[in-house]
Amino acid sequence: MKAVITLAGEGTRLLPATRGLRKEMLPLFYRGVQGTAVLAPVVHHVVRTLVGAGAREMALVVGPDQGWVRRYFEPDEAFLRRHRSHPERLRETLALERMLRGVRFHWVVQRRPRGFGDALLRARGVMGKAPFLLHAADAVLREPHEGELPRRMEELREREGASAVLLVRRVRDPRRYGVVEGRLTRAGGGLSFLEVRGMEEKPTRPKSPWAATAVYALSPEIFPLLRREARAGKELEVTQGLRALLSEGHRVLAVRLPGPGHAWLSVGSPEGYYRALQRTFREASRGPAAP
Predict the structure, then answer these.
(1) Rounded to the nearest 5°, which phi and psi values hold at 146?
(2) What gap in Å lies between CA 100 and CA 111, rounded to an integer?
(3) What is the H or E stretch that residue 285 is in?
(4) What are the 10-residue block averages of pLDDT along the chain, 291 residues in total?
């Protein structure tokens, strides 16, 4: 399976912390191989989720200063040699390298932040004609079994003959989000989804309580529609491509974020980052050890 991770935004809502440090490199907790709480960048958590979903080829859409994330994920034998006298400090780094065996990264540059849809569009050459997962790197999906929900979203997309499946959650004030309208259906195995009929971005009068999150299972049919929707000088959003799919008669589904044990944690604002840090610390302090 293939996947796209977008991490080219500048994180201006988190300034000055993100001056010189991308928000996707802000740390959150997980339970390490020794059973203790460990800090790792948000994008590390996203990659863990996608590996758990079965992705073995990933396009990381980065800004021009891509070195920071590339150095993090690429093996560095010189670094390991320098610190071999303290093997206990290298356990998590070595665990990361083991997790990434067999995973191929592609580095795609988005020179100017022109929207989530533009970032995705730049990865079309890597994705080719294969279906793929899409995950923004400024939020993490928490679930009892890492990667299970994105994997089930792709299985649902293929089984139902849909062009896109997105993840939604019920929120109190949908005016702040992309709102999805549709009829709720139960798919079995505790999974519920909506047959999407329409989408609005931050509506003043929302027609439903379902807010889109930045996790998708997509077919390559979205690429020509995104390219068609692109306008010079304007940001391009994935929502525009999804609406275009709907207008052309393609099927779009939205999986509802399940209940206990699942959460969508955004780090796009100071308050969101603080809540994510608190929750991941609680989970890392009591959950099972990482594989």
Answers:
(1) -55, 125
(2) 27
(3) helix 270-286
(4) 87 75 88 91 96 96 82 86 85 90 93 88 94 95 94 94 95 86 75 90 87 95 93 83 95 91 90 94 74 46
Give the list of residues 6+ apart from residue 84 with CB closer than 8 angstroms, or none.
90
What phi and psi values does residue 179 have, to the nearest 5 degrees?
-105, 135
Nearest to 137 by CA among 20, 34, 59: 59
CA distance 179 to 170: 10
* Residue 195 C-beta-side C-alpha neighbours within 13 Å: 9
3-state secondary structure of 63: coil
The Cα 6–Cα 120 span in angstroms is: 7
Nearest-10 crossing angle of helices 238-247, 222-229:
110
Q: Which domains does the chain have, with CATH numbers?
A: 2-286 (3.90.550.10)
- Which of 206, 141, 193 is CA-nearest to residue 164? 193
- DSSP summary character for residue 12: G
- Cβ atoms of residues 187 and 193 within 8 Å: yes
The strand ranges marked E within 118-158 are: 132-136, 139-142
Q: Where are the alpha helices (DSSP H) in 38-123?
A: 42-53, 67-73, 77-82, 91-99, 116-121
Q: Nearest CA to 179 among 192, 194, 157?
A: 194
Q: Give the pTM.
A: 0.92
Distance CA 43, CA 249 (A): 34
Phi then psi for residue 127, to 5 deg, are -75, -30
Of 90, 94, 4, 91, the closest CA to residue 47 belongs to 4
